[in-house]
Structure formats: C-alpha cells, structure tokens
Amino acid sequence: MTHSTTAAATLPKAPTPHLHPGPLPGDFYAYEDLLSDTEKAAIGRLREFLRTEVAPIVDEYWARAEFPFQLFDGFAKLGLTDWADPASAQDKPSNLLQGMIAMELAHADASVATGFGVHTGLAMGSILACGSAAQQRAWLPAMSRFEKIGAFGLTEPHGGSDVAGGMATTARRDGDAWILDGAKRWIGHGTFADVVIIWARDAETDQVLGFIVEKGTPGFSATKIERKIALRIVQNADITLEDCRVPEANRLQHANSFKDTAKILRQTRSGVAWEAVGMTLAAYEIALQYAKEREQFGRPIGKFQLVQDLLVKMLGNATASFGMMVRLAQLQDAGVYKDEHSGLAKAYCTVRMRETVSWARELLGGNGIVLDYNIGRFVADAEAIYSYEGTREMQTLIVGRSVTGLSAFVG
Questions:
Q1: pLDDT in tens, 137-156
Q2: N or C: which end of the chain has fewer CB within 10 A?
Q3: Where is the composition biased (Low complexity) (predicted)?
C-alpha cells in the first residue's frame, strides 16, 4: 500500500493574519485613521516587528509551551513603554494607541499579547497606580526597558471571581517588614519574573494590600502549570508564599484596599477586550485568504454563497467590536469611563471573538485544527481570553447592576 501526496500538494498555502505594512483588511471602517501620523508610525513599527520576529516562530514556541525571551529585547527597542520611566520626557500614549497596540499583538498571537499585558499593564500598572514616587523611580526605569520583568499575583487556587472578598493570602506586619503567607495560581511570567506584585489581606485590618516581591525572596516559590491547551507560550505558575518576608519599602504605598486593586483591573480589562478584537480580526483575515485560495468543485470556496455569508458575519463581529473599543478609548481619554464600560466591552468582545474564531475553524474544515493553518492556535487561545480578567458572567453582573441599580451579586 502506498500513500499519495497528491492531495497535500493541491492544498492552498497556509493562510496567515495580515502581514504587510498597510491597514488591516479587517478594519472595514478604517478606525486606524483615527490615529495621528505619529501614532500610525508606531503601529507600523510594531506590525513590522510582529511580521518578522513573531510570526515565523510563534507556532513552534506554542507547540513546545516555551516562551521566546528574545522578544523582550525587541519590545525594548520599539520603545512602547519608554514613557513609563519617571525620567522620560515622553507623554503617556492615548488610550486609543495603547488599545491598538494590544490589538496588534493579539492579532499576531494571544500569548505574546498576554505576556506584554502582564508585564506592562498589570505589573508596571500596579506600580504606576499604587506605588509611591520613590517606588516608581526604583522599579519603572528597568521595567520600561524590559530589563526586569514583572508579574501580577492576585488569583488564588480557590479564589477567582470571588477574590475580592475571599482572598486567603495574608500579610502580617513584623517590625519594618511584612510576612506573607498563602498561594496564588495562574500567574503569568510567574516562573521567571524579577518582581511579582502580590496582593494579600492585612491580618489586622482585613484590607487588601499590594507588595513588590523580588525574585529569590526566601519563602517564595513558583512552579510552572503544565498541560495547558491555551496560551501555551505564557509561563503560568502556581506560587507559594511561606513566611515570605518583604520590607515595608516594597509595600505599594497607595494600595490600601481592593478598590485600589480594582483601578488596575478596570484598565487591563479593557486591554483584554482589545486583544479579543485583534483575534477576531485575525480569524476573519485567515478565513478570507483561505476562502480565496481553497478550491472545491472546481472553484474557490469564496464563490459559494454560504461561505460569503459566514465571512460577512465574521467581519460584522470584528467591526462592531472594534467600534465599541474605539469609543471606550475615547471615554478613557476623557476620564469619564467606569467599571461597567470595561465590563461590557470585555464581555461583548470576547463572546464575538469566540464565535468568530469558531466560524473560521469551520470554514477551514480539517485544516482548521492544525497549527500549520494558524486558526487552530486562535481557537484554543480564545478560550483563555474569554475567561481571564473577569468571566463573562461576572461582567454581566457589573453591567446589570449599573443599568438596573440593583445588585445580583451573591454574598
């Protein structure tokens, strides 16, 4: 018995998300034109970096569940976070530009976007929002250059959505230091981060405090979570804290309750919604290219009415999600956005993302489940984006409370 290679030879080349310098094909309403020329140039440099440095390697790193540490040098050269250095003369980028950066990253790969967001949005964001001026001067210069990498320890083994009221990790004052005890789970970069922002409940006041825990601190240990089926590049860790002694100088001086933690999550939750838009756009573009090149019954499948119907529904999801995020960024830049705005965006955009990547997988048939055709990675990673930074159900309760004036939270 012999095995024919004829069928494989007639397959279209593996489609990839948009990889040329111009606007994204999925940006049907040209939202990118809302950026200034300087902002467009920054997006163009990032797009080129993702095309040359990420796209060629991402499938192999995803398959091996390894992190491409060389990307940190690339991010540093792009200068996307130079503004966060207290000594920098740069202005903070607009929320629209920051959102589109997150979108572009996820358009290339959700794990890379998540890794960037963990370091810049969660770890650096905690120091920016809750650190003293001295703490910002001490940590942010090296972190903005990706010389020191940060992680964010909030979720616990038995506490996810209820972590605000059910946090079990404790902090006990002992002279000029604090003793941390407890455990954290799903901590991105946790296995290698130079600093981890640990949130713990003050044993005396019952308030949630934040701490900068440095790599190598006695009593701190991290173990990689294995056998993941999504975001495989991200090195998530289980963290254990046993009599972990942290100096008072490393306590975030302006983190005095969970309300301060929530300020950070409100911002990063919108970043996850932007990532969902990036994945939605990528799924549409992969499916569009495939539909033009894949032939069945003697013609490209893009000539079939049902395929065009599917593509238009995908484009509609992408366009609606993109438009929602543009408006959210405008509200953020105006300083008038609220938790419910981020909540609705995260819930809506991730649902549309999950739907769209599923349709793209459907359009690619069997080729949709192998890494060679890209969409399989997006389908798997979408499951994580859908759930983290607050599940859809929790976001609906936040938005529902806002619109009705009635809380449906339990407890």
A1: 999 999 999 999 999 999 99
A2: N
A3: 1-13
